[in-house]
Predict the 3D structure of the following.
Amino acid sequence: MDKDISKESKRINSSEQEKTRIPLIQIDNMTWWYQDSKKILFKKFNFSLTKGDFVVVTGKSGTWKSTLVKFLIGQIKPEKRTIYYKMEDMAEFGDDEIQRYRRKIGIIFQDYQLINSLTAKQNVIYPLVLDQIPLTEIKKKYEAINTLLDISSIETTEIKKLSWGEKQKIAMARALIHAPDFIIADEPTWNLDYESTLQIADILIKANEIWNTIVLVTHDTVLLEYLKKHIDIKTISLWH
Ligand SMILES: Nc1ncnc2c1ncn2[C@@H]1O[C@H](COP(=O)(O)OP(=O)(O)O)[C@@H](O)[C@H]1O
Ligand SMILES: [Mg+2]
């Protein structure tokens, strides 16, 4: 992460450029619906996510935004030859591969899913501890994420004592600390006030600038307009 944070990361060599042409996620002509519902959610749906992208999926409730998130975090198994992660068919992933895949992405849940009894810092480093990363390495990565998000003033506070905005910041730090292939956030500002919403927007913008790929799902028009003003985003709009 610390390496990624420097401007150096933007100076990529040709073999890395080659890799960036392979989509991280590719959805090919997917038609899909929930078994217990007759409503077709995806009709010949195509989607592509490439390194450095900032994709915003926006639109009214009940379209398919969270369902797309479930596919992207491996919670719903796709049909064969519809969803690919770095050209690998995700329908072929077994439980172990799904677990491994999830560790390569950063997930920001609508309800945060932080551990209330732990401090903010303990939550942020939790995925690294699970992965048995050496402590010196964890320290370095934490410092890097702290430089980006400025969380030192709340790091020793238990999650349950934080505001919603602070919780979301910690959830973002946890998602970013292992320099994931991409981050996916489902309605990260749904219960935040205006000021906290813009703080989250700024974090997403910064994260994208340092070469983090982002899929953001939101129906928050304040967030959307702010992002459009400040950064180049690809929008999938489902308002009609
Ligand atoms: N587990 C499920 N089983 C059946 N239908 C579902 C399930 N989850 C969501 N749906 C339905 O699928 C549609 C899309 O839901 P969702 O992807 O959550 O929409 P959004 O996030 O855009 O609000 C809705 O009509 C919803 O009621
Ligand atoms: Mg939703």
